[in-house]
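One example copied in:
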Amino acid sequence: MTINRRELLGYSAAALGATAIGLPRIAKAAAGELTIAYNVNLPSWDPTTGPSAVNPTIQGLYQSVFDQFIPQKPDLSFAPGLLTEWGWNEDRTKITMTVREGVTWHDGSPFTPEDVVWSLQRAGDEKTGNPIQFVWKNVNNFKIDGNKITGDVVQFDPVYFKWMSFLTGYVMPKAYYEKVGPEGFEKAPIGTGPYMVEKFERNAFLRLKANPHYWGGKPAFENVTIKFVTDAASRVAEIESGSSQVTLEIPYEEYDRLIAKDGLAGTCKNVSDIGMIFFNNKDAMLDKNVRQAAVMAVDKQLLVKRLLRGYGQPIDTLETPEYAAYDPSIKVEHNPEKAKELLAASGYSPEKPAKITIQTTKGFKPKDYEMVQAIVGMWRKVGIEATIEVYEIAKHYELRAAHKLAPAAFYNWGNAIGDPTTSTGFAMFGPSPHSSWKTDDLDAKIGPLWGEKDEAKRIAGWKAVDKYIAEQAYVLPLMQFAQPIVHAKGVKVVQHISGALLPALMTPA
């Protein structure tokens, strides 16, 4: 079972020797050179451990250097990769996998089935610090026969193989990692991916060099420099000055302005990321009336229209139309007057408001801070007084893992595999380290769904959970994001619906 990797990545052999054409009014990019202004720093080079491993925004960096077990095409469909075949036996007690042959690591050593087994065993070992360890531990007792691998199912997980395309689902180099250790790997990481790490300055930039032996074909750009530019205005300046040829996640009004300029173009499609407000089960949020009022008071259509210039899609659950458990019948009305009545029943009013803190990033996603400001204004009118606290995204992960988020906290949730377990499940199941709301009633409804073998029953169960969450107002879903990418017309960018910005999908125009 094979695939034309160049077709998968969206570039042709003819593009490989082409010259990158820069903006006509500024300095041109050198032949084979590409510079990207990225919106987040890279805190760690291990894509399988620690909080950064579950940050959807940096997966594009990881996927440039490492291969996942099973890749996703730009439309999120699954494709053969390091694993060319995979599946369950009839009674779901064993898994089988076929490993691609002829692949090499960046140091020239051969990639083997032992690397796959070691990576899966390491991911399932709680001592390694994999944030998704509770998924990977569900299969063990792996056996290798040539390029075939079998494993015993300890506990059936219907999305085990889907995770191989998602967070922490990366194949790591067994011999190299054991030789250099964690510190050595941070200093000189290697993978099997389309690009090799040439230089890395923390909080500054990453320099990548094309992997000439990549199993899917050498990427079009020989050298890629990724600047870590966390300020949105600075990313705008990068692309407008020509210092960078590609950038992303800028305010939508700047996107519209920039793509109208000579020499610039863009793409802005709905991606699998959603914007949401986590509620934490403490303080005023323990009051159902306050939660329901907080949800009803927010005019999501207005947020999308005014702040996001019509880009994006309002949502009422943690599912988007592309997700497997999306249910358009679940609606939460925008009703400020009803919100006032609910708050009044609990003794609150605009004159005597319920007081909470809401946390948010600023410039991490387009208009994130401004959106929270607008929500706070909507809340103020009905009787909720919220104080805004700004933090970096890394702080959010730290607080969420320790169950110390404020009563309300903005977040963008990525779900590239579109399964309800990886949206509603991990966001709302109390034992999950990625959840904020933790109550027994919800856990009792979600718990049985993790191992449900009947797919139709499983999806129906998740829809029922989404309906219950909406009724109880345990979370505030906001919208599905559209991701703005601006680029020089001399660069062709293929947008990946996961939101990952992949240099390997870019070619000279």
